[in-house]
Amino acid sequence: MTSIETHIINLLDPDTKVHIKGIAIKALCSDHTARALEALLKASHDQNYSVRLRAVHALGNQSIWEVNDHLLSIMSNDSHATVRAHAIEALAKQGAPGAIPKIAEKHFGEKISVQQASANALYYYSGSKSLSNLARGVYFYNLNKFTEALDCFNNTLVLDTNNFYAYYYRGMCFIHIDENEKALEDLTTYLDLQPEDPIGDGFYNRGILHSSLHDDKETMIKDLLEQIKWNPDHANAQWDLGNYYLAIAEIELAIEHFSKYIKQKPDDIYGYKYRAACYKRNNQIFLGIEDHTRIIELDPSWSNYGDRASYYMEAGLFNDAIEDCDQAIRIDPTYFSYLMRGESLAKFGDYKAAIKDCNKSIELRSSNPSAYILRAECYYHLNNKVQAHIDFKTAIEIVPRLGYYGRSKFYRSIDEREKSLSDLDEVIKITPQISGLHLKKACDYAFLGKEEKAIDSINMAFKLLKGDTNYVIKEIENESDLDAIRGKEEYIKLVKSYQN
């Protein structure tokens, strides 16, 4: 048996120690026989990382064209970044026809993050100056060295004015250094050159720029929808679409996009939180409870038990709500945990127990107006109107906007609508731009039979949300006090005037 055959056996034997395999590889580096090549190719798949790396080095020195496809496969698929990097280096040394474009496609198109060796290999061995600059630019970009990266991308575009990778990455550099108009221009050029967005998030980033720079929500939505057309797994696009549709009360569409976001990121509790909020708005409270149960499985914190308790209360499941609040208090006895349990007990009709929890909540945080508002409601139901008045007054002194709104909400619940209107007027003096306050006034006016004033308040809500007419319409549909108003000719004309 020849010495070469011995080294081949040592190299291919899975039980051979790593340092022996290293010696075998070193001996085979200078041998260009078919059997030596076969052994090195097999060694490049060895379970040990250092053996694979040495084999890739050896293959790079073989100067045999047949290894190029194999090196491309290693470059794309090896689990270790350094092995991928040295496979790129080996390909560049080979100078194989077509290898450099393939390297660019894998390295930039899929954004494989390899070590600097890959960028250096392309820089020193590539016949393409533009690609050399591009490789170095992406390397600097991945290190967050955006000034150095910009220089490289600028040089790339001097040599190759249609290099869409350079436009994309230069645009992303501009985003990071807050030159967003330039970023928008570069991303638009990238998408003009490559309308199918091969990098996978060009439309998304351009859409966000349209929104942040020019408040152009319509173009943003077009770009986000185009993004998921080409890349349906783009989680951020699904998330932003969900939030947009939730904001304009297109709840079914919001649920659809949050569900797709959850599919991509099943362990992100915020996807479930926002979808649950949509279910609540859509009167699908039990689906919201299911989402909050999943949230607790992922993060059993006191606040998440408190959130699910609020959904149980909405569903009329007060015992379940109290149990969740008990668990929240066991985990962390915060002012909010006691407040939530107090609210559950009040809904259940146990006002004395609710007052005790309000007392504890106030003891832990005396500056929280919500505890005073809840305690005032409980005192009122226990016919202690003097103490109720004192607590409402205290809440107003702490945070006037919340105090007046809380008392207005309470007056509305007991059909004291004139008093509710008076408090709403105080809130509007403080925050006049909130359309929902005018809708609440419309409800009170409608209840009192003052239909003309109700229409005037609805008109003000439309004015404040002129760009979101559908949102206002859906909010009106959810208010039973406004059922009679929706059939009035004046209301129908008003809606048409804003829709046009």
Question: Tags for this entry?
Answer:
elongated, 500 residues
Number of helices: 30
Beta percentage is: under 5%
Largest sheet: none
How many DSSP E strands?
Answer: 0
Weakly predicted, low-confidence segments: 104-127
* Share of helix, binned: over 70%
CATH architect. name of the domain at 128-231: Alpha Horseshoe
Structural class: mainly alpha
Kindly provide the radius of gyration, computed on alpha-carbon positions and rounded to a whole number of angstroms. Answer: 33 Å
CATH superfamily of the domain at 128-231: Tetratricopeptide repeat domain
Kindly report how far apart the N and C termini lie.
91 Å
- What is the string of helix and strand elements? HHHHHHHHHHHHHHHHHHHHHHHHHHHHHH
General shape: elongated
* Highest CATH level, the class of the domain at 128-231: Mainly Alpha
Looking at the structure, the CATH topology of the domain at 128-231 is Serine Threonine Protein Phosphatase 5, Tetratricopeptide repeat
What is the mean predicted local confidence, pLDDT? 86
